[in-house]
Each structure stands twice: as C-alpha cells, then as structure tokens.
C-alpha cells in the first residue's frame, strides 16, 4: 500500500507541474496508476465492489484536483469506475442465476432463503433492480423508487450456508478483481490504439484532389491524413500555424516528410483561405457532453469561418477525450492561461509589465484552449465511428455511470 | 399569408359560437351531472380547463381565498372518504382529479396519478387484469375530459405503463401487488417535489454571479431554481415578461421581490428590446414533446427565436413525467387550447381574436433541458421516450 501511495503522490506532482503533455499520455498513465491501485487494494468479502469504487474515487479526486483542466484524467477515472460497476453487476447476475439453479433443485433451501426475510421476489426481479442502479435514472424507473435489494444478494447468499455456496463466494472475491483488471487492460489497449482506429476511417472522408485545413498540431490528425495518403488519395493540406506555440510548423514538417503537399498560413489568414478549402479537420483536447469541443486556441475562429462558408468542420477525438460533464462557463473554467512570455519578450516590455510603476499596466492573456459550441461542428470521428454532435449523449451513457459524474 | 390553408373557414364556424367569458374563480368545477353521463365534452371547442386552473392559480389571491376555495372543493366526499366509495357507484375519477388539481402547489401529473390511485383504492377487482382494465377506463375518461392538458396525458400514460409492468408475476398474490402500486402512486407526490429540487440543484452551476435571467410565465420549477440560487447567495437579476393575459409576470415579480432578488417587469413586446442585456433565458414547460421541443405558455416560441438570433442560451426546466408522445410539426398541430382574453375594451363583433393559450417551440431553439433525469440536450428526449414505450 505505501508503494501505491508514493506512486500516486508522484503522479499528482507530475500533473500539477504539467509535466505530462497530451491527453493520450495522461490518460494512459492514469489508467496504469489506477490498475496498480486496484490490484494492491485489499477487498473485504462482502461488498467488494464498493471498496474498490471508494479506493478509485479517492485517488481520482486527488488526480482531478491536481490538474482540473486536463479532462482526460477525470474521464478515465470515471471509465474505470464504470468498469468496476459493470463487472460487479455481471457477477451478481451470474451468482443469482447460480443460486436460482441450486434453489430449484432443493425445496428446503427455498424455505431457508425466504426465512431470512428476503422479499419474495424472483431472481430476475432482483437482477433487474440491480441493473437499474447501473443505468442512469430514466422514465421507466421513475415510479419504481430506489431498489433496496441491490446489495441483498451477497448477504442472503452468506446467510444460506451450504458448502458449495461458500466455495462460490471465495472464488467470487478473486473473480471481481480479476475481471476488473482485465477490463482496465482493455481500456489501456483502447486508449493506445485510438489513433489507428480513427485513421482507418480516413479514406471515407478524404477524397481525391481535396483541400484540407487544420490548425495547430494533433497526432490524431497527422495519422488520419497519412492514412489517407497511404491509400493513394492525393490532396493538399493547409496548416494554420497556431500561435503562440507555432505547433503548426512542426505538423507541416511532418506532413512534408510523409509526402503531402502542405501550405503554412497564419491564424489570421484562415478566414481568407476558408472559401478555397473543402473540409476542416482538427483534433480536440476534450469533447463535452453537449457536443461542444475544447480545442487549441484558434479553433473557434476556424469553426465560425467554416460555418459561414458552409465548409464541413470535422473533429477527431479518441474515446478517452469524451467528458460526461456539461460546460457552463467553458471559456473561463476549462481554460488554462499560460505564461505571457510566449507572447511577449519580458526584457523589451518590462516597463509596461511592471504594475507598481504607476498608471496603466499591460496585461497579457494567453489562453491555451478554445470552446466550440456544438452547432458549429458537423461530425465527430471517434474510434467507434462517425457521429453527430447531438449523439454524444449515447456514447456517454455507454461509457460512464450516472453515479460517477460528481466525484 | 396568415391563411395557410382553407381551414380558416372551419375555424370561422367554430369561432362564431359565442363562448361565455365569465369564469368566476369561486365556482366549483363543472357539476357532476354532466360528468356522470358519457359526454365529457359538451362544447366542441371548450375553454381549456387546464389553463383555467393555471389562471386560477396565478390570480393575485390571498390566503383566505385559498382556504375558501379548498373548503369548497372539500365538499366532495371522495376526497376525505378514502376507503369506501360514497353511495356505492358512481365514483367519479374526474371529481377526484379536480379536487387534487385545485391545490396550487401540486403538479398536474401528480393530481392525475393520485386520482388513479383513488380508483385503485376503490376498485373491487380481484385480478391484475381487471384492475388494469378499470384503470385504463379511468385514464381514458380523464384524458378525454381535458384533451388539452399534456401533463395529464403524460402522467396517466406513465402510470399505466408502470402498472402494466408491475405484473402479478413478481408478486405472490394480487393484494400485495395492488398495495405496492398504491404505495408508489402515493409516493409520486414526493417524487415530484424531489424532482423540482434535483432540477434546482442541477441548474445551479449555470447561474453565475452577475447574470441576468429572462423568465417567461410562472413555472413552479423555474421559481424553485431561482429560489435555490438566491439561497446560495448568488447575485443575479431577473427580467420577467408580463405574460398577458394571465399576468403571470406580476405574480412572479411579487414572489421574487419577497426573496430580495432584483426584478424588472417587461411587457411581452419588450423582449427583443431587452434581449442584449440578458445572459440566459429560463422557461418551464407544460409538456416536452418527442422531437425535444416544448409546449409552453404563449410567447415562449417568440422569446426562443429572439434569444437564438442573439446567441443567448435558452434553458428549459421540466420534470421527466412531462415527456409526451407527441410530435407536432407546426404550431397548429396541437389540440387547440383556448383561453378567454380580456382586452379591457369591448371587441367589435366582426373581429377575430387569437385565443390559443400555448405554442410549440422547436428543439433547434433550445439549448439544454434540466430534468430530474439529468441535464439533457433536446435529442435525448426521444431516446427516453423510446425506452419507456417500446
């Protein structure tokens, strides 16, 4: 356990100091850390899922607090929690099915089970009730109220004591952790493989002799464009340089190295060039639940220009970037202000920047991210395929549980 | 141009029928004689009882009046006598419903479900099937009595779905199934209050310090949201529209002023004029339709259009039991719900008056819906409805 504590502390430190760049790397490190937390966590016999969930939540809260702007951290923590709940549920239903078979064969056991004060409901109903705790609240469950029996299966099975059942219990203990770790490994693979999955779809969207515009530098976009190139599509790319970090320059260099005809333009020239562009493709930092996009600064401008000229605006995002929260003030709360030295040279401007010097001081604002509202986005391409912005809520319902939204 | 189809001829015929405008608030609901027989709609184009009741709620009333009204309603013995129906038959579900509906704080769907619960209580069925048939009949009667109220229809449908799914297969005997259904129906009133609180909590993040909120109509859910924000010491101000002909704005302004929230009253036509100083629009809903649009008091569509053209978010606060299986394609696609409108001057006889009480706002003008199922985008509504009904 102390080993895990130190790992967590070290990771929190790295996050706070923004040492890890990129949401994919952050997501992978977070998941690997959570995997160690889960495997080192000692779980009690009863209610082990709750113990795992509490442990992961505790670590998750620390991580999110260290870097609240990096939404991928919160996303993968919630994915892991969802995995735990799902595995727990499938084990419960399997256990109930097992118990049911044993009960049916033995009449005395049926009376015993009922004698404990277990409500006279069939196993199917209990499983359905447990399943409803996993689903978000819906119209169907509105009148049903809170099912009290979600944790009853474990206690009732511990009450009805036949040898075979207790043997089942201890194997159940090991099984939950094992299943969860398998699920987490799958998640890691998914995160690592998201670029390939997205790039596979490139050929459907990029056609011959097209002009693509992109902004800044995103590894997903790079792989996407190169995949299309490999399938023998010939097209041109305009790269907006993405001041003040000028990462567009790096992307342009990479694209030329792979044989694509590239043009570098300034951010201010986007509106001028947009009428000659067939499609805008950008990578997102995060995608919010309403379909809004958090991207590198400048994408809102590109999105508005694209809307004005009816150019499709395509956003590429791996599933670890999908955030279940609704943005209520994204320009401020989900943004990070970087050092002004990226914009201005401190030496030259030292007299203006000095606040104590008297009247009038120069303020420099250097935001990292931009928020694009959902009505400006034409298509999201994730590793599961292409989706409408208004479809995001379905993906979120698949990947996350409602109980984990507030950590 | 405003005659989009030849239906105006039909409308003219209906409008020619003189409809009495006198609706004294103290009068009890329509006498039981007309309810006992099978013609619940003697007038082909009735004044919408739903909007009448809302108007009664919104009238500037004193607490003594409220007590008087409730005492008048309590004349109906069904209300107190919960065990056995008075004088054998007829037990009128409509009277029961009306008695619940008069309470200003109770949501429409809750009144419907309580009325149906009373049907279950007084029913003498011995099997689940029989009970379901009785309930279906009662629910159809209720729905036919007031075809304009969407929450009523939605509440009845929801309850019927729930009863159908809580089948006796899960329970050993009929009586425990019946008591469980009854228990849930009775709890529904709490669910509705809880729903309002959940909605208020969900929307707190969206109200920031220093914001200006435009409100239309007196929705109890929106009022709860504003009340909770004020309790959380948020600083904001509210612009409320007058809301003719109900004058809901005046009542809302009074209530908000009591909570020390800065309020400004606007006439309905001043909405576009004030829209640029508004940060967000909050409205309630009488019903949420399958497309994700809402049906609300007349004027909501106008406000949503103006807000959309000026890039202001429009937030809708609605409980989930207001989701209805309707898909209006345009404004006239709804059941006509008419209200008497008083212009303070006599209207010349040849002049028509548009008396519709509500309009339909399409989903593309709405930003988010706050419901007790969570914060939803308009496209989620049809998903929820499909899950329930299919």
From TrEMBL, chain A:
Residues 140-161 have a biased composition (Polar residues). It comes from the Eukaryota. Coiled coil: none annotated. It is found in: Cytoplasm, Cytosol. Pfam families: IF-2B. Residues 140-172 are annotated as: Disordered. The keyword Protein biosynthesis applies. Keywords: Cytoplasm, Initiation factor, Protein biosynthesis. GO terms for molecular function: translation initiation factor activity. Gene3D superfamilies: Translation initiation factor eif-2b, domain 2. PANTHER family: TRANSLATION INITIATION FACTOR EIF-2B SUBUNIT BETA. Component of the translation initiation factor 2B (eIF2B) complex which is a heterodecamer of two sets of five different subunits: alpha, beta, gamma, delta and epsilon. Subunits alpha, beta and delta comprise a regulatory subcomplex and subunits epsilon and gamma comprise a catalytic subcomplex. Within the complex, the hexameric regulatory complex resides at the center, with the two heterodimeric catalytic subcomplexes bound on opposite sides. Belongs to the eIF-2B alpha/beta/delta subunits family. This is Translation initiation factor eIF2B subunit beta. It comes from Camelina sativa (False flax).
From TrEMBL, chain B:
InterPro entries: eIF2B_alpha/beta/delta, elF-2B_alpha_N, IF-2B-related, IF_2B-like_C, NagB/RpiA_transferase-like. Residues 19-47 are annotated as: Disordered. GO terms for molecular function: translation initiation factor activity. Pfam families: IF-2B (PF01008). Gene3D superfamilies: Translation initiation factor eif-2b, domain 2, Translation initiation factor eIF-2B, N-terminal domain. Its main location: cytoplasm. Keywords: Cytoplasm, Initiation factor, Protein biosynthesis. It is found in: Cytoplasm, Cytosol. The keyword Cytoplasm applies. Component of the translation initiation factor 2B (eIF2B) complex which is a heterodecamer of two sets of five different subunits: alpha, beta, gamma, delta and epsilon. Subunits alpha, beta and delta comprise a regulatory subcomplex and subunits epsilon and gamma comprise a catalytic subcomplex. Within the complex, the hexameric regulatory complex resides at the center, with the two heterodimeric catalytic subcomplexes bound on opposite sides. Belongs to the eIF-2B alpha/beta/delta subunits family. This is Translation initiation factor eIF2B subunit alpha.
